[in-house]
Structure formats: structure tokens, C-alpha cells
């Protein structure tokens, strides 16, 4: 890994942003970890097991490799351009095609909202059923989104600090799973033979599509690190802070995911995991340690809350960044005078998330999130190569060229029909893109009417 440029004084140190710089290095590391951990591992592990079988660990290993490849591209780009808007900003700078920029930005926004909706559904599902099933799940999910929007309006510092608390809680839950697994191994419990079993019959193409399908869905557990680049304008010295934070976050969470997958398959048959929307609760119940299921269910509820909070936060910052880039109407860039939070963006994305809550179940929303982001990741990995022709006058991280090449190829493979993805995921994504195209056209008409387009 190397740096490029001669001036070590980066422009982001100037106070040239309307947002408050409230995030330091340690807080950012915890933010990235908390952003990745959450709904994916707590809610979709069972569906991943249903696709691949007892070899549940393999999709998470492959997902980790794909994540680290793309993370390297994001680190280089956020170092060069430490501004909000993330993938949309990089796409515009690389290709200078406003339509493509809008589509990428819209896909990122929709991925965050479908992820938040999956988290809301997970919150109102089997984990909550350990305590009560009196209220309709949809009502709970809507109230859940509204509560997170209110917290987000208070300020980034409050939201990120809440994220830190929830991150510690969800990490504790996963450490409990690992402790149960260690105890089972030491006690001679579990079925090690499951770790090499595949759900698909035969070998060859069927086995490949089974593994790719499981990896594509399991990749939902890894998404989130890309959200953190949208916090660049609220981070202290982002050029130096982001490389360590993103790589540390992906490595820590990837290691935990692989170990949790091993423990889950070791202790619980994949068919039992597949039938549960609270798969890690099944692991707790099957473990030799007498750990209260209700307490673990409470931890899981905190975990999915964290995922939804961060996705609502990031989608609103994306709106803010796109408004500043004139991709969306300027109104979406308005901030509260005292709180300095993007109030219009928060309200807008929260309303969209409420609408998405009723469009599908956890698996479908999670797979939609992964598909949309895999398409975006392919574009970002290509953009980092194109933007090598655009040097900047400050030092920043530079990834080896082979990594974004491999990142683009693996992302496209996992986004393709080879991953055996259900048709309704493509349909949902297609509908969202159609909405995006309509909004892009409307925005262009408004700008032309004002003489700005």
C-alpha cells in the first residue's frame, strides 16, 4: 500500500463544511463495526444456511474477501475526496454522466432504506416474540422507524454515541455465541461433520450456484462499511482516519461472522436454522450453557436497532450530499440551524423506509440490499481505476491495482443470475430504479424551469 501526492496538509482540515466535525478515530472505528454488524448476522444466517447447508461458514469467507476488496477502493476514494455523497460523488468525478450518477446515488439510498426496513422487520419478528406478540408487526416496525428518525434529528453526536452503545451490546451477543461454541467444542458436543455438508445435490453447476446464492444473501451481513464514507464531512481528519477505521471494521466483523457461522452449523442443523427468523436464538437454546433466551433476544433487538439507526442516518447524509452536488433539489440539503442535522433529508428517507416496510420479508429485503450494493460496488471499483488520472495535491491511501479489478469482477458475479437470486428481488430493484429514473427526469425539468439546467 502506498501514498500519492506531496502536500501532507489535506483540505478537509479546513472548516469548510456546514456539518459539525464530531467523530474522532476511535468513534469512527466503533461506528464502522456497528455499521456492519447487526441485522445480517442476527436475522439472515438461517436463510444463508438454507441455501448452502452445513457449510455455512463458506459464504461468509467469500463475502469477507469481496468486502475487503471493495473496502480498499472506498478507502482510496474517500482519501482523495473527503466529502459526503460517497459512491455518487466518485461516479460523477469518474464518468461525468449525471444520469449514471443519479442512478448510483439512488441505488445506494434504496439499499440503505431496504436494509433499515429489513431491520425493522427483524425487530418486530421472532426476537420480539420472546416478550410479546400483542401488537401487529407492521405497526411496531413503523413506530420503530419514527423513533430512530427522532434520534437522528437530535444530532450526529447523539446518534453516533447511541451507535457506540448499541455496538457494544451487539458485540456482546456475538461473543456469547462464540463462548457457547467454545464450550460445546470443549464438552465434545456438536456435529463437526455438518461443516462440510452442502445443501445442493451433486456437484458442478448446482453446487456453484448454491454457494454463490448463499454468498450473495450472506453479503448483506457485510454491507455498511461503505456508509461510513458519507460521514467524511463530520469526521476529524478523514484522510488519515478512514483507512484504519474501515479495514479494522471489516477484518473484525469478518472474523466474528466466520466464527459465528461455524458455531451455528456445529450446534444446529441447517434446516432448523432455515425455519427460524431468529437463528442465533436457536444456537443459544442448543448450547450447553444455561443462558437465558430472553436476554439474548433483547441483545438481538438492540443489534437490529443499531443497523436501522445507521442506515437511516447514512441515507439522510446521502440526500444532503446529493443536494449539495445539485443532483437532488436544494431543499434536501437544508439543516436545522442549531442542531446542524439534515432535517429534510431525514424526514424524506424515513417516509420512504416506512413505505418499504410493507414490501417484503427480511430475506427479500436483505437480498435486495445486497444486490443493489453489489451493482454499486462494481461501479466504485471501476471508478477508482478511472480516477487514477485525477491526482490531488494531498497524500492519501492508494490500493494496489489488482484489488479493484478483482473487486469489480466478484461484485458483478454475485449480482448476476449465477447467484440463483429469486426473481422478486430483481423485480423490486427494477421498480426502485424506475422510480429513480422518474425522479431524475422530474428534477431535470424543475432545474430547466428555473433556468439552472
Can you describe what's shown?
This protein is globular. 57% of the residues are buried. Helix content is 68%, strand content 1%. It has one domain: Amino acid/polyamine transporter I (Up-down Bundle), CATH 1.20.1740. By secondary structure, the chain is mainly α. It has 18 helices and 2 strands. A two-stranded antiparallel ribbon has the order 1-2. Residues 1-17 have low confidence and may be disordered. The chain crosses the membrane at residues 27-44, 56-78, 99-122, 134-153, 165-185, 205-225, 246-268, 295-320, 341-358, 370-387, 399-419, 425-442. It is found in: Cell membrane. This is Amino acid permease. InterPro entries: AA/rel_permease1, APC_superfamily. GO terms for molecular function: transmembrane transporter activity.
Q: What can be said about this structure in brief?
A:
With about 450 residues, the protein is mainly α. The protein has 18 helices and two strands.
Compute the CA-based radius of gyration: 21 Å
Number of domains: 1
Helix-strand topology string:
EHHHHHHHHHHHHHHHHEHH
Give the CATH topology. Answer: Amino acid/polyamine transporter I
Order of strands side by side in the largest beta sheet? 1-2
Percent of residues in helices comes to: 55-70%
Low-confidence stretches: 1-17
Q: How would you sum up the global shape?
A: globular
Helix run count: 18
Task: Identify the CATH homologous superfamily.
Answer: Amino acid/polyamine transporter I
Mean pLDDT, as a whole number? 84
Give the N-terminus to C-terminus distance in angstroms: 41 Å
Number of strands: 2
Quick one: biggest sheet?
2 strands, antiparallel
CATH class designation: Mainly Alpha
CATH architecture: Up-down Bundle
- Which structural class best describes the helix and strand composition? mainly alpha
User: In percent terms, what proportion of residues is strand?
Assistant: under 5%
Keywords: Cell membrane, Membrane, Transmembrane, Transmembrane helix
GO cellular component, one term: plasma membrane
GO molecular function: transmembrane transporter activity
Protein name: Amino acid permease
Amino acid at each position: 500500500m502506498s501514498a500519492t501526492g506531496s502536500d501532507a496538509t489535506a483540505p478537509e482540515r479546513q472548516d469548510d463544511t456546514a456539518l459539525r466535525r464530531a467523530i474522532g478515530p476511535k468513534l469512527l472505528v466503533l461506528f464502522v463495526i456497528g455499521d456492519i454488524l447487526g441485522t445480517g448476522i442476527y436475522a439472515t444466517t438461517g436463510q444463508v444456511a438454507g441455501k448452502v447447508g452445513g457449510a455455512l461458514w463458506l459464504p461468509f469467507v467469500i463475502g469477507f474477501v469481496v468486502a475487503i476488496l471493495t473496502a480498499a477502493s472506498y478507502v482510496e476514494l474517500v482519501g482523495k475526496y473527503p466529502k459526503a455523497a460517497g459512491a455518487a460523488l466518485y461516479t460523477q468525478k469518474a464518468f461525468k454522466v449525471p444520469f449514471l450518477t443519479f442512478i448510483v446515488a439512488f441505488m445506494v439510498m434504496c439499499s440503505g432504506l431496504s436494509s433499515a426496513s429489513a431491520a425493522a422487520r427483524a425487530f418486530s419478528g421472532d426476537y420480539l416474540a420472546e416478550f410479546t406478540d400483542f401488537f401487529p408487526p407492521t405497526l411496531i416496525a413503523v413506530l420503530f422507524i419514527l423513533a430512530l428518525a427522532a434520534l437522528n434529528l437530535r444530532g450526529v453526536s447523539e446518534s453516533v454515541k447511541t451507535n457506540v452503545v448499541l455496538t457494544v451490546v451487539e458485540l456482546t451477543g456475538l461473543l456469547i455465541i462464540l463462548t457457547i461454541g467454545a464450550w460445546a467444542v470443549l464438552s465434545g458436543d456438536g456435529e463437526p461433520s455438518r461443516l462440510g455438508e452442502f445443501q445442493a445435490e451433486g456437484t458442478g453447476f448446482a453446487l456453484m450456484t448454491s454457494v454463490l446464492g448463499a454468498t450473495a444473501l450472506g453479503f448483506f451481513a457485510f454491507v455498511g462499511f461503505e456508509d461510513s464514507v458519507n460521514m467524511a464531512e463530520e469526521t476529524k481528519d478523514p484522510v488519515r482516519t478512514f483507512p484504519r477505521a474501515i479495514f479494522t471494521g471489516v477484518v473484525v466483523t469478518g472474523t466474528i461472522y466466520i466464527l459465528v457461522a461455524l458455531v451455528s452449523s456445529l450446534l444446529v442443523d441447517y434446516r432448523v436454522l432455515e425455519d427460524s427468523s431468529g437463528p442465533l436464538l436457536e444456537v443459544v437454546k442448543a448450547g450447553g450453557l444455561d443462558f437465558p433466551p430472553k436476554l439474548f433476544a433483547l441483545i438481538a433487538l438492540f443489534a437490529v436497532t443499531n443497523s436501522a439507526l445507521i442506515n437511516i442516518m447514512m441515507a439522510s447524509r446521502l440526500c444532503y450530499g446529493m443536494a449539495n452536488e445539485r443532483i437532488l433539489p436544494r431543499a434536501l440539503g437544508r439543516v436545522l440551524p442549531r442542531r446542524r442535522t439534515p432535517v429534510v433529508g431525514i424526514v424524506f428517507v424515513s417516509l420512504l423506509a416506512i413505505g418499504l416496510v410493507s414490501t417484503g420479508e427480511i430475506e427479500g429485503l436483505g437480498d435486495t440490499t445486497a444486490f443493489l450494493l453489489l451493482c454499486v460496488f462494481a461501479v466504485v471499483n471501476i471508478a477508482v481505476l478511472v480516477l487514477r488520472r485525477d491526482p490531488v495535491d494531498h497524500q492519501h491511501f492508494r490500493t494496489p491495482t489488482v484489488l479493484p479489478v478483482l473487486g469489480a469482477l466478484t461484485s458483478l458475479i454475485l449480482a448476476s443470475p449465477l447467484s440463483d437470486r429469486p426473481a422478486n428481488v430483481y423485480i423490486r430493484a427494477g421498480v426502485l430504479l424506475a422510480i429513480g429514473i422518474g425522479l431524475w427526469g422530474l428534477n431535470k425539468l424543475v432545474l430547466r424551469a428555473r433556468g439552472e439546467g
